[in-house]
Amino acid sequence: MSGLTCIVTTLRGFYKIFHGQDLIPAVWRIERPAEEYFITNPAIALTRFGWVMAYKVVTANYKIERFAICRLDQNFNVIPGSQGALSDTISNVNQQVGDPRLLLFRQRLFVLFCHFRLPSLLYLAELDLDSLEAVGEARPLFLDNRQWQEKNWMLFEYQGELWAVYTISPHVILKLKMTKAGAIDCERQFIEPWDITAYREKYGEPRGGSLPVQVHDRYYVFFHSWRYATRLHQVISPYWARLRQSLGKPYHWQGPRVDHGDVRLLQNTTDHYYQPKRLPCRLGSLMNRYEQTFARRICYAGVYTFQGKPPFHPLTIRSRPLISPDNEASAMRTNPLTKDHVVFPGGAVCTPDQGWLVSYGVHDERCVLRGFDQDELTSSLETELSTR
User: How far is residue 380's CA from residue 286's CA, in Å, rounded to a whole number?
Assistant: First the structure.
């Protein structure tokens, strides 16, 4: 715990921006100059070997989407030479992947990540604590009747078993079956509605973010939410979504079970039920141009808590965001990556004195670590909500 003891007195107000060139693995610098990569959406964890940070690495046109990992010293500087091309070490799925989340489960380190090719699937891979490389193949997470695109499940450990927050409202908890090799089957265990209308109307629907952290009798989650920047599109967005769906983009799909977690057949299928239709060229161009102009998003980072034991009742939600993109430096570039104003939490660690270290991405172009104390988290938490 030496990495914690040196910072517990200085976490409040701590703020650190990482420069992209300091985080690119050497092997990827051979492919293209470091300045052509963008880094974002970091996750952090404190292992017995010290601090570890994983992060998404992309190019401007999203032709390359991967994730890397590095070690940090006690002052949260990147340890030279520790940058590793983590996704390259995963043999079965290592392209068009990102948004890594670091999970400590049964004293072992795992990375949870998303394969963005539709239908998107989440994968879980174990990492070697010494080399920070993947051990074996990544295991896909399977759930019946899920959305076509999902990438924000939040896994957590309870009494040696693995669970996940599937959605925040309603509060849906999954149980993961880790008993056999290959694909991991997930089942809905608890479903509980609760009223978060006040937050949703101002800042959008709460969605996944950092993995839950247990403190005493509850778990804390740093989530993200977004709303449209223009009032026009806020009004017409439900109708716009129906139009998009009616033109061929399905909302739900029933994923087939494939032996040994091999989902290549699923992803290569040409069945219209699994493969979205292409929009007519001119219509698609007009719709994309409209979205780039009027459908820009503002993404926030908020906090909610849920009960520390089954059935994991939702308890409180902070009435306003903890982190807003308006308080961050402006985007450094003008390109498709930065048309939205974004903060996206990917990791959190609680220190012994109830200080918090949160990692998040800003404008899809940089990684940030920021410190908070418990008072800052609870200053606007709504009173305990009865969900029975």
Answer: 42
**Rounded Cα gap, residues 340 and 328, in angstroms:** 13
Query: With contact defined as beta carbons under 8 Å apart, do 79 and 70 qualify?
Result: yes
260 three-state secondary structure? helix
Q: What is the pLDDT of residues 148-174, one digit of tens each?
A: 778 899 999 999 999 999 999 999 999
Is residue 130 packed enough to be buried (19+ CB in 10 Å), middle (13-18) or exposed (0-12)? exposed
The DSSP annotation for 142-183 comes to E-SSEESS----EEEEETTEEEEEEETTTEEEEEEE-SSSSS
Provide the whole-model pTM. Answer: 0.86
To 10 degrees, what angle do helices 281-294 and 231-246 make? 150
Q: Which residues pair with 221 in a beta bridge?
A: 304
Give the up-direction half-sphere exposure of residue 37: CA atoms within 13 A in the CB hemisphere: 28
Say which CATH architecture domain 2-229+296-378 belongs to: 5 Propeller (2.115)
For 258-271, write each residue's pLDDT tens digit: 444 444 444 444 33
Tens digit of each residue's pLDDT (9 = 90 or more) over 28-73: 999 988 888 999 999 999 999 999 999 999 987 778 899 999 999 9
Q: Count the neighbouring beta carbons within 10 Å of the beta carbon of residue 227.
A: 18
